[in-house]
Write a sequence for this structure.
């Protein structure tokens, strides 16, 4: 039975000569992999389906979902949200590549989570329309940690240390996973704010990179097998 759903593309892999295997986060089934036959083959109009499968593209599709199959098949594909700047602005494109690589790595659940789907969809629509976005990716990762189960505790924010291992603010230094200084100050400022307020926080390039490095270490501590994304180098270069 054909059903309609919305999906967000995370990654793609060439299969055979003209096919693609797409990994997507879906509104109704969580993580799903799709086989797109002939995606790389030009149509009579000279276009191919591959244009639909850019990182974080938001699509409306028809599928005949079979939970017993590892690869699903799409019957109809339409763009559900048309980005206007995400793939043309070099800075936004670097953020998209970086965050799509992280999402591809950390999202594993094959079950429905509409809150998480809506979070991803709406935040990238926000990024598409925003002119000041240099801090977007660090706030995105911080908020993503809530859906992954390890959002830093907002309790006792007046304490002088934050423990990356426990996720709590503490009154004393407890080894290499305790942070203080600028990273601690920025963490306290970012906890609880929304995206429309993040541009009011002014951070220089070095402090932003240091904070991002700390966030990635936080993800490594709480997600087994998590590794810093390869696209981090590109992101760092673009935002120098």
């Amino acid at each position: 039975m054909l059903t309609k759903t919305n999906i967000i593309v995370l990654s793609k892999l060439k299969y055979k000569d003209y096919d693609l295997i797409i990994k997507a986060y879906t509104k109704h089934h969580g993580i799903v992999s799709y086989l797109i036959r002939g995606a790389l083959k030009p149509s009579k109009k000279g276009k191919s389906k591959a244009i639909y499968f850019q990182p974080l593209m938001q699509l409306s599709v028809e599928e005949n979902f079979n939970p017993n199959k590892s690869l699903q098949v799409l019957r109809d594909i339409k763009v559900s949200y048309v980005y206007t700047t995400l793939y043309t602005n070099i800075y936004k494109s670097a953020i998209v590549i970086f965050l799509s690589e992280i999402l591809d790595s950390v999202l594993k659940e094959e079950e429905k989570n509409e809150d998480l789907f809506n979070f991803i969809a709406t935040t990238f629509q926000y990024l598409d329309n925003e002119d000041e976005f240099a801090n977007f990716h660090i706030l995105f990762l911080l908020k993503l940690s809530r859906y992954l189960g390890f959002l830093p505790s907002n309790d006792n924010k007046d304490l002088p240390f934050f423990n990356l291992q426990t996720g709590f603010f503490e009154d004393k230094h407890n080894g290499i996973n305790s942070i203080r200084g600028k990273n601690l100050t920025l963490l306290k400022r970012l906890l609880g704010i929304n995206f429309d307020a993040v541009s009011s926080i002014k951070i220089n390039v070095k402090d932003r990179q240091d904070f991002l490095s700390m966030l990635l270490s936080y993800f490594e501590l709480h997600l087994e097998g998590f590794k810093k994304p390869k696209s981090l180098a590109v992101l760092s270069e673009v935002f120098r």
Notes: The first helix runs from residue 90 to 106. The chain has two domains: 1-82, 85-240.
